[in-house]
Amino acid sequence: MTTSIKYEQGGCQCGAVRYRTTDRPIRAMACHCVTCKLRTGAPYGVGVYFEEKDVEFIQGEMSVYEFASDTSGRWIRNEFCHHCSTTLSWTLEMRPGLRAMAGGTFDNPDWYRIESHIWTRSARSDMCYPDGMAVHERALIG
Ligand SMILES: [Zn+2]
Ligand SMILES: [Zn+2]
Q1: How far apart, in Å, are the Cα atoms of 113 and each of 38, 43, 72, 108?
Q2: Whole-structure pTM value
Q3: Amino acid 4: pLDDT
Q4: Angstrom distances, CA of residue 66 to CA of 34, 58, 91, 98
Q5: What is the number of the ligand closest to the CA of 86?
Q6: Torsion angle of alpha carbons 139, 34, 127, 43, nearest 10°?
Q7: For residue 7, what pLDDT is reported?
Q8: I want to staple 36 with a disulfide (CB 3.0 to 4.6 A). Which of 4, 45, 105, 118 is the partner?
Q9: Is pLDDT at 31 greater than 70 in this prediction?
Q10: Domains in the chain, start-ordered, CATH in brackets?
Q11: 87-101: string of b/e by CB count within 10 Å (b at 16+)?
Q12: What percentage of the chain carries pLDDT values higher than 70?
């Protein structure tokens, strides 16, 4: 990642849950899969992936919703504020040791760079992508 800022903070809509990240993300992706649409209620979700040790939850309580991926069948665990229901984070059986933070929950929306758009086969038909953006019809593995 090309970012010079190392520590970032974010939180949920009501402010009860706050977190900080202590190192740069592994990657950041915009995902148009159905799971991300339903998690966010938006046309696509942005996942910023960190080593689990690089995310610290500072305050607040989260609830967990676990379900099976409709493509892989493996578990996904969404973690959300039990008061306002903002989903802040999720972990995946497919990516052990990594934790995704919801891109929209950072105080500063611009500090990470979205590297790719994935699962675009289920994207809205009027979706436009920035020039030079990597666009993948399915998942990006690795
Ligand atoms: Zn909240
Ligand atoms: Zn997705």
Answers
A1: 23, 19, 27, 12
A2: 0.91
A3: 52
A4: 15, 23, 10, 16
A5: 1
A6: -130
A7: 87
A8: 45
A9: yes
A10: 8-132 (2.170.150.70)
A11: bbbbbbeeeeebbbb
A12: 94
Indicate the pairing of strand 116-118 with strand 134-135: parallel
User: Residue 74: is it exposed, middle or buried by C-beta count within 10 angstroms (0-12/13-18/19+)?
Assistant: exposed
For ligand 2, the distance from its centroid to the CA atom of residue 139, given in whole angstroms, is 8
Q: What's at 137, amino acid-wise?
A: E
| Residues 54, 98: Cα–Cα separation, whole Å | 9
Distance (Å) from CA 78 to ligand 1 centroid:
14
End-to-end CA distance of the chain: 15
Find out whether 91 and 107 touch, Cβ atoms under 8 Å: no
Neighbours of ion ligand 1 (CB under 5 A): 12, 14, 16, 81, 83-84
DSSP string, 2-16: ------EEEE-SSSS
Give the tokens for residue 93: 């059986």
Distances (CA, A) of 138 to 11, 47, 78, 122: 29, 15, 21, 9
Cα–Cα distance measured from residue 65 to residue 42, given in angstroms and rounded to the nearest whole number = 18
In angstroms, the CA 12 to CA 42 distance is: 16
